[in-house]
Backbone:
């Protein structure tokens, strides 16, 4: 969490930004009276994670299009994905959060107390929620309430470098392949200073990899913490052994959360665990033929976690009706279709998913998506999920690099976590 000094600095910076924007008649839409632009439109601020200039431009386009359609003005407030949830939990708790807030399904429970339940607004608006993927409606709900309208969805999958597979004389993996087939391929792909796959201790990646391997999980289906789960520790040990025993995966440099993705896009490794939201962006970055398949299934495994994100309304928003009108446009067929075409999302509106498939233009992607989705379960959300994710990035590297057995690492993580 941020220190008191950091939180004070953030609030000071936020106030300074609002003052600057005040020259245009814009102020944050917290507990204050509704702000308007000079032309009389309601001003809404949207907190969203962004990954750079290109990402910012894409989300700004969403803000502009949705704002115009809803008759409001939306100002994008960007932060990194790593900072977003700590920042939002602080702002929501203090009552100075923006009206529109991005929510990831893994962390719905973390933010829900400062968010407005959307059920009554959706009912009053006659919004047909059945057009959205049900797993994401479930993932963005807590305590029986929906807190965000979903914009993307996706099971975790395996991206692979077709050129490296061909050079090693390895057949391309088929959807539904096994961990035995994966390991056989990985040994052949590890050659000439390059590896089969880079380790990824990020919560979604490691939890999905272990679930596919042996079914181990640190969150029960009803979202209770189970950090002492023996199968999960065994799964993490299997991942560690890929580096230290099988030698098909490199050591992991602690703190580099982009390590696995960067190793893959630079052709230093042949495979990477990721979600469909990254596929088209990855395809645009790489200089090789990109393939996609399911996560390899081990004994007792075979499932994959499905995750996604959406946008909700903070409780302190002065104009929830205007904010909901904006949400409807942001998650409408037009904008989600555009996000799908651009590769920013596998649309949570199921009717728009074919757009993503068509623009991916990767042989086998539709089959892979169908197989992965059929074997996917929503990853539960616990109020401590963000803390657990931070500890995973900090501690699981010790198991990956052979410094500690996975079971001991999980005990260290459990000792710093709440018990439910």
Residues:
């Amino acid at each position: 969490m941020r220190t008191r000094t950091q939180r004070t600095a953030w609030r000071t910076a936020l106030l300074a930004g609002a003052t600057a924007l005040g020259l245009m008649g814009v102020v944050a839409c917290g507990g204050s009276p509704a702000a308007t632009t000079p032309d009389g439109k309601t001003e809404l601020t949207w907190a969203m994670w962004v990954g750079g200039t290109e990402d910012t431009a894409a989300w700004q386009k969403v803000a502009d299009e949705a704002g115009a359609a809803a008759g409001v003005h939306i100002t994008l407030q960007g932060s990194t994905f790593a900072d977003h949830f700590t920042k939002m939990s602080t702002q929501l708790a203090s009552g100075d959060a923006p009206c529109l807030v991005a929510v990831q399904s893994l962390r719905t429970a973390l933010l829900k107390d400062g968010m407005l339940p959307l059920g009554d607004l959706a009912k009053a608006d006659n919004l047909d929620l059945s057009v959205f993927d049900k797993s994401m409606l479930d993932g963005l709900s807590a305590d029986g309430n929906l807190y965000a309208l979903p914009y993307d969805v996706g099971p975790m999958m395996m991206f692979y470098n077709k050129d490296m597979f061909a050079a090693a004389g390895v057949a391309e993996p088929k959807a539904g392949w096994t961990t035995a087939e994966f390991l056989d391929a990985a040994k052949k792909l590890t050659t000439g200073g390059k590896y089969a796959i880079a380790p990824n201790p990020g919560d979604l990646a490691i939890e999905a990899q272990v679930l596919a391997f042996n079914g181990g999980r640190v969150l029960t289906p009803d979202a209770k913490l189970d950090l002492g789960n023996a199968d999960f520790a065994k799964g993490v040990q299997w991942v560690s052994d890929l580096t230290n025993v099988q030698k098909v995966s490199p050591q992991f440099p602690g703190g580099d959360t982009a390590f696995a993705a960067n190793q893959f896009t630079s052709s230093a490794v042949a495979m990477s665990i990721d979600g469909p939201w990254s596929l088209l962006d990855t395809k645009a970055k790489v200089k090789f033929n990109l393939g996609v398949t399911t996560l390899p299934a081990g004994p007792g495994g075979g499932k994959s976690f499905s995750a996604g994100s959406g946008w909700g309304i903070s409780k302190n928003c002065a104009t929830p009706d205007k904010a909901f009108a904006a949400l409807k446009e942001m998650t409408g067929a037009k904008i989600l279709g555009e996000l799908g075409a651009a590769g920013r999302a596998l649309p949570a509106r199921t009717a728009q998913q074919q757009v993503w498939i068509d623009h991916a233009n990767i042989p086998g992607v539709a089959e892979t998506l169908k197989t992965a989705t059929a074997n996917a379960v929503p990853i539960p959300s616990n109020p401590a999920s963000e803390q657990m994710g931070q500890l995973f990035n900090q501690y699981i590297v010790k198991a990956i690099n052979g410094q500690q057995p996975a079971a001991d690492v999980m005990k260290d993580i459990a000792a710093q976590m709440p018990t439910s």
